[in-house]
Design brief:
- By secondary structure, this protein is α+β, with helices and mostly antiparallel strands.
- Strands 1, 2, 5, 6, 15, 16, 17 and 18 form an eight-stranded antiparallel beta sheet that branches. A five-stranded antiparallel beta sheet has the order 9-8-7-14-13, with no helix packed on it.
- The two termini are about 55 Å apart.
- The relative contact order is 0.13.
Amino acid sequence: MMNALTGALFGALAVYLGGWWFGAWMGNFSLLLFVLTVVTFAYWLAERLRFRPAREAAAAELERQDTARRAELAKMGIAQVDGNVAEAREKLLMQPWWLDWTAGLFPVILIVFLLRSFLFEPFKIPSGSMVPTLLVGDLILVNKYHYGVRLPVLNKKIVDNQPVQRGDVMVFRYPPDPRVDYIKRVVGVPGDEVAYLNQKLTINGQELPVTAQGEYYDEDSLRYAPQFSEKLGAVEHRILVDPRRQPFFGTDDKRFPFRENCRYTAEGVVCKVPQGHYFMMGDNRDNSLDSRFWGFVPDENIVGRAFFVWMNFGNLGRIGAFH
């Protein structure tokens, strides 16, 4: 029965992963990892409390019977007895495949679950919105505890840590669809007035200083773009701003929470950041779908602070910390 049950569970997992891979539905890796941890833990407990004791009892009974048989034969003067009880004992003690692939994997899955939930989580950069800081294909690490400890899956903060700072590169759940993770730079914190007018960023009435850094060649778009150095809070970082591409925010009614805090004009947008929310922008200012379009990021959507590129298979020189 356990063979069939475990086979059915693996079949369901294969269907779920297959549908996720081919885009039939949206996956939730955090939830999947939590479910796998719970299921393998149940098998691990069953192995410790029931299945392994049962196998050990069967092996002990086999040895007892073999010892009794040899004693009886010895009384009859038969000293040479055929049979290898040690081999049979090993077979009795051996874990069946359905325990080896469930209870045996529990410690590994538990470690991955704890590391990913509370310490560091890997992400892959899917778009060019953070160029030149992050490139498509960069594999990055996100510090999950920098802003506080959150419950896995629920993402509810239970312990505070460092406050969100302007200039942080942050991964968060996309407000219009929290099943999707986004990465942008924190531009405005609660109480800030953020203005992006005529491709110039102003925070609380102070225009951020920028310094020209020559042109940047974007290998994905195969074009050059003007590159600048920008000082945002304590962080100095590079941005791309192309004066030939004036921003267009559309004329339709943008509906998102606290929409009344924003004013849209032909020059750009001005927003007052509400409490418990953040205003996010991409470093590739003319190629970023960010808070200018879909509004503010609530605190409960925060995933963590991005800080390190651990691999880029097309460019190993990308490995290292970033600002």
